[in-house]
Amino acid sequence: MKQITFENHHASRRFSTAYAALCCMLITSAIAPTSSQAASTTTKSTGYGYSDLYGELTPTQVYSLVKNIDSMVMHYAYKYQPSIARDLPRKIVLVNGYKPEQVFVSLGNLCDDIDRLAMRYDVPPVARVKRQANEAIPAEVFLLAGASLDTLSKTLSNIEPENNFGDFYSHRTYARAKTPSDVYALVELIHRKLTVLLGEQQQLSKQTKMDE
């Protein structure tokens, strides 16, 4: 499996201090000693699970990262497909009772969309994340979301080499704690946006070939 790394594209300032700190937290948690009792307590108190490898991440942190993916998709839409950008889906379809595993699967489907866009600009596909256990935990969802954002950043860097996309790595805060259901709903919204964008671009490509 391809190793997951959060890359610094062209300049170290691409990563905000908050985002870099969050990634460092994953590494620190991976090497810090944890007892079985502590792991059990954390799992029971949060309901989201604990990983001896990653430590603990919350759905709110995952949501923040996925929101950055949404912002980058909208940047691409307004700049390169402005005729349809204003008509893209905007309404989040709320769901309840979803678990990190369902978010992980949905995010995997979104990775397929991002791969299709990346291939058009000679960018490698999203590096996938392997689950530690049978079901994904928020840390693994976070890593997959981070890999997705990396690939989008690489894609836009190829299109706009003169620009810096560090602002899309910001760590957002929310008044209300997010749930896996919130993350799932946002991932699905981005998927619907990319379905429209990629479909429209495909039609334009076909029309161009017909006109040649």
Entry summary:
The protein has helices at 17-31, 36-46, 59-80, 82-85, 100-119, 138-159, 180-211. Helix 3 packs parallel to helix 6 and helix 5 packs parallel to helix 6 (138-159). The protein starts with 16 loop residues before the first helix and ends with a helix.
Find the count of extended strands (DSSP E, 2+ residues).
Answer: 0
Count of alpha/pi helices = 7
| Poorly predicted regions | 1-22, 24-47, 204-212
Order of helices and strands: HHHHHHH
Q: Averaging pLDDT over every residue, what do you get?
A: 76
Number of domains: 1
What is the rounded Rg? Answer: 18 Å
Provide the β-strand percentage band: under 5%
Biggest β-sheet, characterized? none
Structural class: mainly alpha
User: In one word, what is the shape?
Assistant: globular
Report the helical percentage. Answer: 55-70%
Euclidean distance between termini CA atoms = 42 Å
